[in-house]
Amino acid sequence: MPELPEVEAARRAIEEHCLGKKITRCSAAADPKVIDGVSPSDLESSLVGKTILAALRKGKNLWLRLDSPPFPTFQFGMTGAIYIKGVAVTKYKRSAVSSTDEWPSKYSKVFIELDDGLELSFTDKRRFAKVRFLEDPESVPPISELGPDALNEPMQINEFMDSLSKKKIAIKALLLDQSYISGIGNWVADEVLYQARIHPLQIASSLSRESCESLHRCIKEVIEKALEVGADSNQFPENWIFHSREKKPGKAFVDGKKIDFITVGGRTSAYVPELQKLKGNQSKKVTQSKPRKAKSNKNNHDQEESDSEEEESKEDPKSKKSETAPGGTKKRQKKINDADDNGEKPQKPTKGRTKKQADMAVNSSNKRIKSGQASAPQKKKARK
């Protein structure tokens, strides 16, 4: 999914080409999954006649400051992208719309024409992005819930080390937590950890001062280097793990060294075992996940997109936590609750017993209770 470098490149393109210009025409897609909390007609009528004063960003969120509120905000999701007609804006590989396609693209969610004829469009192929219209974007979720921006609000080294010393989770999972540092996603986290020679599963609080300093420096260097080339991944340095992180296991190498794949924080993670080793007590424990089995390139992309969908749902403030108990599905939990209400122990499916048979046993037990008929164990107890 687009991360800080891709969103910042889009912000800079808008800042360079669109500031001080008035919106003369606007059209919004009738897609309530993306256009969130405002009707397309209200969005269109509210934008026309407004002047763009600034393009702002925090983490992976971008918004336009107009001459009066409310302001349009863009959460890029998995495949959100900004296009300006006639202007080269970064192309995230899963967002890219061909230059030979119709304009605006069929994937366009918001199209804007400015008073000098310049046209821009926010597109989203997979429909995980969100476009909102807010009075004060920074005061409400998702932006209000973000941690300091990795580029614009970096922690000082002592503050960074102090915060890491209190985190008892894997460093990769911590970097992906947008409430801790905003803007770092899966590929940036993999890259900075590789450059800093830190294992993705290393517990944050166990990092040495040297590792903390290296990580702090690499976050800055990776983001700035990506932005130097306009977030064009084709121009990223050849010695970055980025170029091989989606190849098949066993065929992925960087500088001649093998790349392995594990799952950390729910995300597929690429690392180089020869250079990124677990240290301290963790080096003595078997805490590492099994390497990912070889899959086709298509399956690798599907896995990465599945991971991104999960991350996107976690970042969406409207996503609901599962109400399912750890013991099983909602239906199973309801049966347990019903059994508890009837004063009996819930029937559990046993080996050789089908779910249907287990359900019949529960129903039969309930009927006996309602009719006043004692069960076999109850009768035996009464005779005693």
TrEMBL record:
The keyword Cell division does not apply. Residues 279-289, 362-376 have a biased composition (Polar residues). This is Formamidopyrimidine-DNA glycosylase isoform X1. Pfam families: Fapy_DNA_glyco, Fpg-like_C, H2TH. PROSITE patterns: FPG_CAT. NCBIfam families: fpg. Gene3D superfamilies: 1.10.8.50, MutM-like, N-terminal. It comes from Elaeis guineensis var. tenera. Residues 275-384 are annotated as: Disordered. One of its GO terms (cellular component) is nucleus. Residues 2-129 form the Formamidopyrimidine-DNA glycosylase catalytic domain.
